[in-house]
Amino acid sequence: MPEQLPESYLAVLKQAEGFVAQEIVPRGERLGLGEPLAALSAEVRAASKQAGFFYKTQPEAFGGAPAGALELTMLREYWASANSELTRFIFGPGPGILHEASGELASQFLKPVMAGEKRGAFGFTEPDSAPRPTWAVLANDELTLNGQKSYVTGGDTADFLSILVNVEDPNGAKLGTAMVVVDRAAAGVVLEDTFTSMEGGGHAAFRFEAVKVPSWQMIGKLGEGMPRALANIGNVRLMVAAEAMGMSLWALDYLNQHLLAPHRTGGSLGDKEGVRLRYAELRIQAFAGRSVLYRAARRADGPDNSVNEVIAAKVFCTEVASTIIDWAVQLVGGQALVVGHPLEALYRRVRSLRLVEGANDLLRLNLAKGNLELGKGDL
Ligand SMILES: Cc1cc2nc3c(=O)[nH]c(=O)nc-3n(C[C@H](O)[C@H](O)[C@H](O)COP(=O)(O)OP(=O)(O)OC[C@H]3O[C@@H](n4cnc5c(N)ncnc54)[C@H](O)[C@@H]3O)c2cc1C
Fold first, then answer.
1. Is the C-beta atom of 215 inside 6 A of ligand 1?
2. What is the three-state SS of the chain?
């Protein structure tokens, strides 16, 4: 196995295979027959708690049994390779950007999040039309927020938003950036728009009109906003890379079966040399992508800085997955584009991965900066 996983991880993987076969596949069939997603996702969560997978993304302080980056990567890739809408309910909610919260921020937001009682959304992206980036005036331990955020995934149904703001004093002097937790129901939080992106994600755009927020709702210290926002995004990048390779594995497995099946021209498509060349190229790319993914995950578990390596994995794996799924569509032919075909859905889903958690070209610029100006990153 190219990933060279330790025996204990292979045992977890075997358990995961059993879980998908017994808990995910039959419920996926029920979903296809029209049973509601909400009921089936609750069943998956209950089964996942029973099996112990639920707790692998949760800190010990909240009853979790957190797994390291390599184990999570292995599982995330495997869940994605099942190509089911239901695998996203297996892991329990993680603390995300609230991971170091203490005091009131912990009791009012982090604890309810970990108990599944509250859900937050992340507000970083701003509309091009915004007159100035979202800002907050700090006076008497209170922030007054104004501005806009767009593309807040799950924002319309969230209980709170974690947003990046530029903080200044009442005279306009700049004090630095901060991540601030804002109650979704606070006065002045205006839901301007909701929309759906092609892979099915639901998003919201917000306007903030003199929203009053107590200063304890700031995550960490003043001035730490941008590094905290980027650190949170960094944790998710490895997850995106793992999902990309899991999707690639599913597509290659599907393609393998298609190439071996009878074709109307007589024989099979897999008999044709030109098709074999294409297929081999896709397998070479998947091999390279998985090698990058697992090397970056091992690095993330170690003591050394892994920002550049995780960026490399996110960019490479999402681009490899885009190529593999695009060619899988091409080789399966017109039927793969019929609405409802699994490759049609996968094609829409893979497209967003090159934009989420940092557009790939911007990540390339970050990687160059990390190396040229900060001396980070190994080859
Ligand atoms: C499914 C999905 C979910 C999302 N969820 C969230 C969320 O929950 N919260 C949130 O805050 N945002 C979210 N986003 C927004 C996402 O983070 C942004 O779309 C992404 O960061 C790109 O920003 P942008 O759309 O403003 O494009 P722009 O920043 O305008 O960039 C567009 C393109 O221009 C090029 N480009 C831009 N600047 C440069 C440069 N300096 N050098 C070279 N090329 C450049 C790149 O090719 C880039 O892809 C989500 C997006 C998607 C698709």
1. no
2. CCCCCCHHHHHHHHHHHHHHHHHHHHHHHHHHCCCCHHHHHHHHHHHHHHHCHHHHHCCHHHCCCCCCHHHHHHHHHHHHHCCCCCHHHCCCCCCHHHCCCCHHHHHHHHHHHHCCCCCEEEECCCCCCCCCCCEEEEECCEEEEEEEEEEEECHHHCCEEEEEEEEECCCCCEEEEEEEEEECCCCCEEEEEEEECCCCCEEEEEEEEEEEEEHHHEECCCCCHHHHHHHHHHHHHHHHHHHHHHHHHHHHHHHHHHHHCECCCCCEHHHCHHHHHHHHHHHHHHHHHHHHHHHHHHHHHCCCCCHHHHHHHHHHHHHHHHHHHHHHHHHHCHHHHCCCCHHHHHHHHHHHCCCCCCCHHHHHHHHHHHHHCCCCCCC
